[in-house]
Design goal:
The complex is a heterodimer of chains A (244) and B (302). Chain A is an all-alpha fold and 244 residues long. Chain A has helices spanning 11-44, 50-70, 73-79, 83-86, 93-123, 131-152, 158-182, 188-196, 212-235. Chain A has nine helices and no strands. Chain B is 34% helix and 28% strand. Chain B has helices spanning 46-53, 71-78, 95-106, 110-123, 139-151, 169-182, 196-202, 242-245, 265-277, 291-300; strands spanning 2-12, 19-30, 35-39, 61-66, 81-83, 157-161, 188-192, 205-210, 213-219, 229-237, 250-251, 258-264, 281-287. Chain B has a six-stranded mixed beta sheet, with helices on both faces. A four-stranded antiparallel beta sheet of chain B has the order 11-12-10-13, with helices on one face. In chain B, strands 2-1-4 form a three-stranded antiparallel beta sheet, covered by helices on one side. In chain B, helix 3 (95-106) packs across helix 4 (110-123), helix 3 runs parallel beside helix 5 (139-151) and helix 7 packs across helix 10 (291-300). The longest helix of chain B is centred in the middle third of the chain and has 14 residues, at 110-123. The chains are: A mainly alpha (244), B alpha/beta (302).
Chain lengths: 244, 302
């Protein structure tokens, strides 16, 4: 039998899975939110700025959107035993999950475009989209999505761990910042933990896009976690027992 | 060719640090062109052996190679047709879409996928379930879907773990026909099963495992000689004088004409020839327990 050895032969299916679930959900939010704002606006007469709506939405929802898009990918396949069907076929786990990670990233990047488009359509006041916002969403996905994929090697509840880690790191960053302002000296371990954790606090859609060392920090950390996630899933034994 | 060289796999429990040897010092070579059975009681190490074969687990010691490569390297480049003991597929997928996806993953060219899927659905009687999701399938139908996804790729190695689990007698028989069709000189078929009758019929040789160790390999049609004594069940029409030939023969209560005879193959043949020569009519003659079953009982000590 002649074989289709194209590395993209399964990409269509992965994309369809994302379109049917995550992207559909993002689209529903993109439709409902501007309509809700329009109704509130017409009731109180205040004209909201689409850029404020957009950045505010992603300030609150970027982590959740990312976790919805990529959460539980490796861990669920391992726990559900699906890996036995997938990876008895000629397909490398690292490539399979890289495609899933990449497509989930595309879905997350489409979310602001859909919301911006709907805001423009409903509010007639521009889309509120900006390059800064798109760059921040992309960097946020690189950091949060890669952390999720990495942790997915160890648990199917990776999304919960990343959510808690992100919360912890951001609170820690606030404490460190406040302490620096007030001249209060924090224990060394606390500063070390804040530095060692992924720099989630740098992802802020309400601020201009990162640049300089902060940009490199996020890029470096996100890329390193992505590579680590893929190396681990490629080299680890996928089974944990005879039938598991 | 799959080569196991002293392959062992141990698990250590995290809490008690207790070590369990799931497979110990397993050495065997499985060649293209043969159907190899793996038999053993629950927990004997059959599924661990298959996981090592596919590279889903790494051996704690020893070596496993497939065509000279590490198992994962082989599987990622060539693929293996694999039916799992418990068929795990996403529950919301529809039956034909599941097969289409698995065909794509298996490397079936896009132009042939629809035909291949349709053929497989017909072959395994899944057409009537085309509108169903995986979660709506009965155990037997799920098993057939699992078999279908394993066979779509036309791979050189096919591994079937408890393949008739949940199948009704009709589909068990059809499954045997499907496996018979899988035979070809460049293909290795490995079947792990509790069902010794199935292995007796399908496999060229059967590796018997117990407590993670290879106890013996039983080759089809070899082994017992014509002089080894074993129990036979023989049924005649009418009432020939069986006791005259085999004084220890016992007629089975409630089944007139059916006898339990203990004899070697040679003496059974001579005795039967004598009875048939005297006008007796033979209805049926079969070993009371199959050779594989005898070997299995001896190997696992039951």
């Amino acid at each position: 039998m002649s074989r289709d050895s194209s590395p993209f032969r399964y990409t269509k299916w992965l994309a369809l899975d994302l379109i049917r679930v995550q992207l559909a959900l993002f689209a529903i939010v993109a439709v409902i939110l501007p309509i809700a704002i329009y109704r509130i606006q017409s009731k109180f007469g205040a004209a909201p700025d689409p850029a404020t709506v957009l950045t505010g939405t992603f300030m609150a929802g970027l982590t959740i959107a990312t976790l919805m898009a990529i959460g539980g990918s490796i861990g669920s396949d391992l726990a559900g035993g699906f890996y036995r069907a997938w990876f008895s076929k000629p397909m490398a786990p690292a490539w399979y999950y890289f495609q899933r990670w990449f497509l989930a990233g595309v879905a997350v990047l489409l979310a602001p475009l859909m919301l911006g488009g709907m805001l423009a359509l409903v509010l007639h006041n521009g889309s509120g989209l900006s390059v800064d916002l798109m760059v921040t969403v992309a960097l946020g996905y690189l950091l949060i999505g890669s952390a999720c994929l990495l942790l997915s090697n160890f648990t199917a509840k990776d999304w919960l761990v990343v959510f808690l880690l992100s919360f912890l790191q951001q609170r820690l960053a606030d404490v460190v910042q406040q302490a620096a302002k007030s001249g209060f000296e924090l224990p060394e371990w606390m500063v070390f933990v804040k530095k060692a954790l992924p720099p989630f606090h740098l992802i802020n859609p309400m601020k201009p896009a990162l640049h300089g060392n902060e940009l490199l920090h996020v890029l470096g950390y996100g890329t390193a976690m992505l590579i680590a996630a893929l190396v681990i899933v490629q080299l680890r034994p996928l089974g944990s027992g005879g039938r598991a | 060719m799959i080569r196991f060289e002293g392959a062992s796999k141990s698990y250590v429990s995290l809490v008690r640090r207790r070590r369990v040897d799931a497979l110990a010092d397993f050495t065997m070579v499985m060649q293209p062109g043969e159907v190899v059975g793996i038999a053993g009681p629950n927990g004997a190490g059959k599924s661990t052996l298959i996981s090592l074969m596919l590279g889903f687990l790494h051996p704690t010691s020893g070596r496993v190679t497939v065509d000279g490569h590490a198992p994962r390297a082989y599987v990622e480049s060539r693929g293996v047709g694999y039916l799992t003991e418990l068929v795990n597929l996403p529950p919301r997928w529809k039956v034909p879409h599941t097969l289409e996806r698995m065909a794509a993953l298996s490397g079936v060219p896009a132009s042939q996928r629809a035909d291949r899927v349709q053929t497989m659905m017909t072959r395994l009687g899944l057409e009537e379930h085309a509108a169903k999701q995986v979660r709506q399938l009965s155990k037997g139908n799920l098993q057939r879907l699992g078999l279908g996804q394993a066979l779509l790729g036309d791979f050189d190695i096919v591994v079937l773990d408890e393949p008739t689990h949940g199948l009704d007698p009709l589909w068990t028989q059809r499954f045997r026909d499907v496996v018979a069709e899988l035979r070809r000189p460049d293909r290795l078929v490995v079947i792990a099963s509790h069902n010794l009758d199935e292995l007796e019929v399908l496999a060229d040789r059967v590796a018997i495992l117990n407590n993670g160790r290879l106890q013996r390999v039983v080759e089809h049609g070899s082994g017992s000689t014509g002089t080894a004594t074993m129990a036979w069940r023989v049924t005649f029409e009418g009432t020939p004088d069986v006791v005259a030939i085999w004084p220890a023969a016992l007629e089975i209560v409630g089944r007139p004409g059916t006898w339990r005879i203990t004899a070697s193959r040679a003496s059974l043949s001579t005795g039967l020839a004598s009875l048939l020569g005297g006008g007796a009519i033979l209805v049926e003659c079969s070993p009371e327990t199959s050779r594989l079953e005898s070997e299995f009982r001896a190997a696992v000590g039951s």
